[in-house]
Amino acid sequence: MAITDIKEFAHLTEEDMEAFGRELDAVRRDIEDSRGEKDAAYIRRTIRLQRCLELGGRIVLLGSKYRPAWLAGTALLSVAKIIENMELGHNVMHGQWDWMNDPEIHSVSWEWDQTGPSEQWKRAHNYSHHTYTNIVGMDDDIGFGILRMTRDEPWKPINLIQPLANVLLAATFEWGIALHDLDSQKELDGEQQKRFWDSPSNRAFVRKIGRQVGKDFVLFPALTGPAWKSTLTANATANLVRNLWAYAVIFCGHFPDGAEKFTMGQFETETRAEWYLRQMLGSANFEAGKVMAFMSGNLCYQIEHHMFPDLPSNRYQEISEKVHALCEKYDLPYTTGSLGKQYLLALRTIHKLSLPDSWLRATSDDAPETSSERKFRTGDAPVVHALRIDPLTGKRRGLRSAIAEARVSLRNAKKEAKRQARAQRDRVKSLTA
Amino acid sequence: MDLKRWLEAPAANVSAPKRPRLNMLRGAITRITTPLLPDDYLHLANPLWSARELRGRVVDVKKETATAVTLVIQPGWGFNFDYQPGQYIGIGLHLGGRWHWRSYSLTSAPNWDEKLISITVKAMPEGFLSSHLVGGVPQGTIVRLAAPKGNFALPTPPPEKILFITAGSGITPIISMLRTLDRHGDMPDTVHIHSAPTEDELMFGDELTAIAEGHPQFTSHVQLTRSDGKFALASLDKFYPDWRERETWACGPSALLEEIERVWKHEGIDDKLHLERFEIARADTSGKGGKVTFSKSDRSVDVDGATSLLEAGENLGVQMPFGCRMGICQTCVVPLTAGHVIDLRSGKEHGEGDRIQTCISAAAGDCTLEL
Ligand code: FES
């Protein structure tokens, strides 16, 4: 079973935990107090850039009959759509720019270039996902209801097609999200099974889809006249590119090894400090330069985003340094790696968990994608809560050291087992000889 | 017909009073810019080209006194110049990354030819925005505007006999009325009593003299209170014995307006009286404030008993509906889902289930707004 007591899991005492929470509150306050002209200029610049890229792409695509123009236009449009989704839509709707008091850049009024209506996405994402982050059974973003991403969930035969479902989800990511959001909206609103058109959520959904599909797949191709076919493929390609990229970023932020899962028990008694810690242990970063960070909507700082979902994205880099330092101080793991590595880890989980549990070796107390405080317990006794200090370095020894130790002892145990097996074999050999 | 409506739909709630065609085009283009509006692209080229909201450019900044300036603003698309003299507009200014809003009376006369409006701002010791405006707004600054509003306005045609009583920056809506009457050339029998502390602090002094010279039926009575003392309402009988027959507009500090209200009521002529209050008297609340929760946005904050819920919400980044910001227009009304608030002007309490004006209400204990 996933983590039920985060304090024990993190090797923190009550006081440590509170101090940790206070330090994070201070990080938030610092950023809130220093938001200003520079940040506002950043988001306005981003908006201008996105509009220009999109406009440019549309214009170049007028000549999409010619291959170079098709390529250039599609590329421009793809980049524009990516920025629109990641750095603008996602972040604005999180309320990251609400402090500007600007009605045009505000979570209440922003509508994004995706099939699902903003309103429904905000309910599912900002509310459900960000409140119940990684709580098995509550956070539907764990696998989006399609994939089995943790062995805390029971295996079903349908999971066998998971590798295929994954490819499909990646390619049609915006549709997957849209349907997922529609479901959560209905669930949250307690909408009973009505006739399709009687449901306001359905109506909003269809209206949005109509506009989106109409624009990309009917109007723009029609406007280019004889070159309609190439414009259609260009638009479809740009949407596909955006889908794949958004999918990759999300998966790298949530499903690499080390992104922990939690139980409802943990949630029910959670303090503010524990909330921070859950967000931190439940998310994963990937290493990115300036450009890649921008293109991912700064979600390469997924950990920081989950701890401070409504602070401006352009400050996440700065926040990450502080969070990193806190991880050092409290000896907590900071899950990160290259984009490729993080994605491969997620991919491994997808494939592995398509198989029934009897084929898997680890348990949900100690698996790459989920673990619990029980993995550190000897017998039934809880992990020691007193502070452990390394006598050599004078540093605290907490979760990160414990994980490392566990890994070492696992490796040693394996080695030992192998050695014994070899010895046994040798003995048998010498006996038979 | 339906096609027309379909085309216009995306731009339906945009004010473009004189250009219905333009709105249709805008609506049609919206179909390809969706989910954006054409404006989102247009104001890349020119920030004034927005019909989604009113904008304006500051084209001139004139010093009126040491502490007051007039901003001449050229509004962008969709501004309706048919406002009534005496009305106010909302103005939003970008400062330190945030938009700050206040309302000011228009001091210009309505005018479709010049396509300019003006407001006159006096620096208030505690007014963050007003001191900034007076301290210096560069020419060319883009501001946001909220459409002209307010019932404190001069009707057309104007009444035959008028009395204006103003003090300090209370003159601003009246100067718009005077300029309008002056421009149309049909000045009724008008008396204007205006109080300012000193000659230096008198706004529009020369203009008042000029109007009086041009129109014998206009009397300008300027009272410099530091040297002449306060204008006593009791002396009205002596100076302007027919004051009871006059349709009266008064604007100035609360104390003055309260006195006027009392006298007019006492005389039984309060149906002839129009008042405009600029300041919200905030001093006399005993409340200590409380924790305000904005339920839909899932945010909350502790505030004192003098901060309006509107400001509290805006500081948190909640998008609060607003108009005049002084308790007149009812744009800011939202349901109070829990707790109590206090009306900063009247001291009246409101409880759960009431719809309250956030701009003039403060927390009286913990409360929750549906926003
Ligand atoms: S904003 Fe006009 S009444 Fe509150």
For the secondary structure, the number of strands of chain A is 0
- Report the radius of gyration of chain A as a whole number of Å: 24 Å
Given helix and strand content, the structural type of chain B is: alpha/beta
Helix-strand pattern of chain B: HHHEEEEEHEEHEHEHHEHEEEHEEEE
Bound molecules: FE2/S2 (inorganic) cluster
Low-confidence stretches of chain A: none
Strand content of chain B: 25-35%
Strand content of chain A: under 5%
* Tertiary shape of chain B: globular
Structural class of chain A: mainly alpha
Global Rg of chain B: 22 Å
Largest sheet of chain B: 6 strands, antiparallel
Low-confidence stretches of chain B: 281-285
Topology, number of strands of chain B:
17
Q: How many angstroms does the end-to-end distance of chain B come to?
A: 37 Å
| Overall morphology of chain A | globular
Q: Tell me the distance between the termini of chain A.
A: 49 Å
- For the largest beta sheet of chain B, what order do the strands appear in spatially? 4-3-6-1-2-5
Quaternary structure state of the chains depicted: heterodimer
Keywords (chain B): 2Fe-2S, FAD, Flavoprotein, Iron, Iron-sulfur, Metal-binding, Oxidoreductase
Cofactor (chain B): FAD
Protein name (chain B): Ferredoxin reductase
Pfam families (chain B): FAD_binding_6, Fer2, NAD_binding_1
